[in-house]
Amino acid sequence: MRCSTRLRTSRRSRRWPNANCSIVSCKVRRGGFCVISPARAIGRIRRAVEWIRDGNTRLRIEALCEAAGMSRANLHRHFVALTGLSPIQYHKQLRLQEARQLLLAGDLSASDVAYAVGHESPSQFSREYLRQFGAPPARDVRKLRHSIDIQVIN
Fold this sequence. Notes:
Blueprint: E1 13-17, E2 23-29, E3 32-33, H1 38-53, H2 61-68, H3 72-83, H4 87-105, H5 110-116, H6 122-133, H7 137-153
Antiparallel strand pairs: 1-2, 2-3
């Protein structure tokens, strides 16, 4: 089945539809086509995702590019095509999910959790948490604990 999605690209690029109906492309280099295939791009993005998940609280794009074996532009383009998020957005979501789990465990305050997951300030952490989950950390944890208690009772 062919994907009907079309992206405006220069005539000097190759396009391959992938399983998610997004386009993975590779620019032509002077000596001919570069050799990155969709399968190779997926493998490299998988390495980048694993590198992010390995607990690197401070995301350095240069180190991520090196881990994936891709240039900054290729990494960003392929990462967004496959995950729907930029590497920085993906990293931020992972940190906030980890923070939510730590808050639910109940051993740490919101400030301690903010520093534990790599945020520089508790206020920035609270703003990002609110954007992600729709409630400040304390209210969100109260609501989640209440819903867990109700499920346990039923």
